[in-house]
Known about the structure:
The chain has strands at about 1-5, 15-20, 25-30, 35-50, 65-85, 85-95, 105-110, 115-130, 135-150, 155-160, 190-195, 210-215, 225-230, 235-245, 250-255, 260, 270-275, 280-285, 290-295. Strands 1, 2, 3, 4, 5, 6, 7, 8, 9 and 10 form a ten-stranded antiparallel β-sheet that branches. Strands 12, 13, 14, 17, 18 and 19 form a six-stranded antiparallel β-sheet that branches. The chain has a three-stranded antiparallel β-sheet with strand order 11-16-15, with no helix packed on it.
Amino acid sequence: NISLHYYQFPQISPSSTASSTQDTTTTQPSYESSLTIFGRKVIGVRYKQTHYLDSTGTEMEPREPTSEIDIEQQLQVKVKGEVGKKIFANVDYDDTLPQSEQQKISLKYLGDEKELIQEVAIGDIQSAWRDSQFLSYNQSLFGVRVKAKLGKFNLTGIGSMTRGIPESKTFTGKTASEKREILDTSYLKRKYYRAYFDSSHLPLTLGSVEVYIDDQKGTNNEDSLKMTVSGEAGDSYTGYFDKQYPGEDYFLDYEKGVLNFSSLIEENYVIALSYLDKDGTRHPQTGYRMLKKGEEELYID
Length: 301
C-alpha cells in the first residue's frame, strides 16, 4: 500500500500581508480585517496486485496478474477571523462528515458593553442554557440569535429553520380480521372465584382478605404453613398452605367479591380464605374456610 498526503492552502492576494506556519495562513487585508485559514487535504493511494498460482501452489500460472488502484480523499478547512468592525466569521468544512453536517457557516456581531444590542449570530449557532435553575437546554440550530441588554434587563431571541432529509415509507399490512364466537359456557376454568360465603357480606372490607393455597406437592413445603381448614359441608382438610399476595398472585374486586388469580390453578389445588364483611365481622370467626377442595365441584365457582 502507498499513502500520499498533500496539503494545499488558498493563495494570498499581493495587496495583503501574510504570515504562515505549517498548517496556518493568515490574511490581513488593508481594511484591518484578518482571516485565519487552516486545514488539510489528504489523498490516499492504495495499489494491489494479484498473482494466480497453479493447483500445487508453487508455480505461477500463465495467466497474467491483475492490479487495482484505490484513491481516497479528505478535505477539512476552517476559516475564522474578523471581517469588519465587531463582525466575526466562522466557516467549517469537513467532507468526512454526513452530507447534512459537512458545511457550517456563521457570522457574529459583538456589541460594546453599553450598547443595546450585545450580540447577533447568524447561521449555524449553538443555543444553550446551562446556568438556569429550572431549564437545561443545548441544541445546534441554523438561524439567528440576538442578545440585548438594557440596564439590568437581558433579552435573548432565537429564530431557527428546520433542516432535514424528507423521506416517506409505505407499509401494507398482511393481517386479516377474524370473527370468533365464544360461548358463555366456554369461560376459562379455575381462574375466577366467589370470595364470599354470603352476598349480604358485600362489599368486603378493603385489605381484609387473606388467601392461602395448598398445591398438594410434598417437595415445596419448607416455608409452608400447616393448618386445618373447614368446608361448607362441615368437613375439613389439613395441608401445607402458601400465602398468596394481592397484586402479585391475585386481584380482588372488594365490591363484587370476585377473586381473579394471576397463575393457573390446577385441579388438585385447595384454596382457603378469610375476610371481614362490610360490618367488620370476620368470616369464618376462626381459621380459614375452603373455596376449592381438589376436584370437587362443590367448591368451584
